[in-house]
Amino acid sequence: QFQLVESGGGLVQPGGSLRLTCAISGGGFGFYAIGWFRQAPGQERQGVAYMSSSGASTKYEDSVKGRFTISRDNDKESAYLQMNSLKPEDTAVYYCATRHAGSMWDWAPSSPKDFDHWGRGTQVTVSS
């Protein structure tokens, strides 16, 4: 069974850093594009960062460019989101998601509807 489990969330002061991990089980991770999304209370889920199955293509939403970095380790079947210079408006539940990309090695999907497996999320709170 294909499962995603996020970890690494927590409480951090403004300007601080966190590294989120998404552990994937079920095999074949190298064929999957990945995405990180977030949802704040009362708001719709929004995209944050995306990476192709090859790792060669990445995209970021403007709100996190220059502060967040998406990465993956296929040997460890894990995806990561390094978050630096955190702001209170980054407070949200963060979700990772995957989509089997087949032969589209450099496709980095960015819409929630493009993804078909989701984790349960990890809470990130940025507050002093």
Question: Which bin fits the share of residues in helices?
Answer: under 10%
Tally of helical segments = 0
Following the backbone from N to C, one meets helices and strands in this order, namely EEEEEEEEEEE
Report strand %: over 45%
What's the rounded overall pLDDT mean?
A: 95
The residue ranges in which pLDDT falls below 50 over 5 or more consecutive positions are none
| C-alpha geometry | globular
Total number of beta strands? 11
- The Cα radius of gyration reads 14 Å
Tell me the major beta sheet: 7 strands, mixed
Give the termini separation.
40 Å
Structural class label: mainly beta
In quaternary terms, these chains amount to single chain
Secondary-structure map:
Blueprint: E1 3-7, E2 10-12, E3 18-25, E4 32-39, E5 46-51, E6 58-60, E7 68-73, E8 78-83, E9 92-100, E10 117-118, E11 122-126
Parallel strand pairs: 2-11
Antiparallel strand pairs: 1-3, 3-8, 4-5, 4-9, 5-6, 7-8, 9-10, 9-11
Structure commentary:
The chain is an all-beta fold and 128 residues long. Helices cover 0% and strands 48% of the residues. It contains no helices and 11 strands. It has strands spanning 3-7, 10-12, 18-25, 32-39, 46-51, 58-60, 68-73, 78-83, 92-100, 117-118, 122-126. The strands form 2 sheets. Strands 2, 4, 5, 6, 9, 10 and 11 form a 7-stranded mixed sheet that branches. Strands 1-3-8-7 form a 4-stranded antiparallel sheet, with no helix packed on it. The termini are far apart. The relative contact order is 0.32. The model has no long low-confidence stretch (mean pLDDT 95).
